[in-house]
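Changelog note: in this version the structure field was regenerated for every chain. One regenerated record is shown below for reference.
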Amino acid sequence: MRAAFALLVLAAALALAGCGGSEAAPAPTAAEPALERLRVIFPEGFTAREMAERVAAVREIAIAKRGVTPRLTRAGYLAALAKARPPKAFLKDWKQSWKQSWKRSLEGFLFPAVYEFTQETTARELVADQLAAFRKRFAAVGLRYARSKNLTPYDVLIIASMVEKEAAVASERRLIAAVIYNRLRAGLPLGIDATVRYGLGIPPTESITKAALRSDNPYNTRKLTGLPPTPIANPGLASLRAAARPANVDHLYFVRIPGTKRHFFTADENLFLRRVCEYGYGCD
């Protein structure tokens, strides 16, 4: 009896010490850090480079104010863009554009919107989300009219990017698109200064020089006819729709009205030149 009682006491002691089972109890582990819900906002008209800068800025804010370090970085975002591809419907024209622009770019396909992510989200995942959003939005754009004018989906995207950069008032998007269509049909240079700035890297705070306007840069639509080789920004849905279905007007010219966000439109070159002079943009 005494021997049996001693064995029972020993077994209880071993159990309390954590040695009484066939397997040892798992050691406690540190709790996994909670995933933070973060957001990055890409406005309509942002370029791919501006989006990369926005990623970097949001990352710094997350570190400073939320105490988390996202995997997303500016360099990682640009690297993900270099590896990604646009939707299949655009591949042929997209590859052809390299011959003119001398570079491969996803410009135009990175749909501007608000994107949620966590500190574990990769740049590849963010770019994939933007491309998915683009495919969804572009599918809602009717291309029948544009195709009747022998324009491809990529052409429409290029036009939409110019509309996005030039239109400061929503009601003028289709008017600006009409000017682009009309000048293409007439064989006239488009004269979109935003393309010149994009091609030569001229910031909006600097004036466009006469040398820049004489350059043979493929984005110089003041000198060259036809569309620039690639989009010059990432347009939103409203600009995509305007580019696919412009207003039914004969306008060939537009110029910003000083002190406003609006433009003056006309089909008369002489009237256009008079307005340019009156507005203080220079007289010939």
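Spot check on this record: Residues 1-26 have pLDDT under 50 and may be disordered. Residues 144 and 150 are 10 Å apart (CA to CA).
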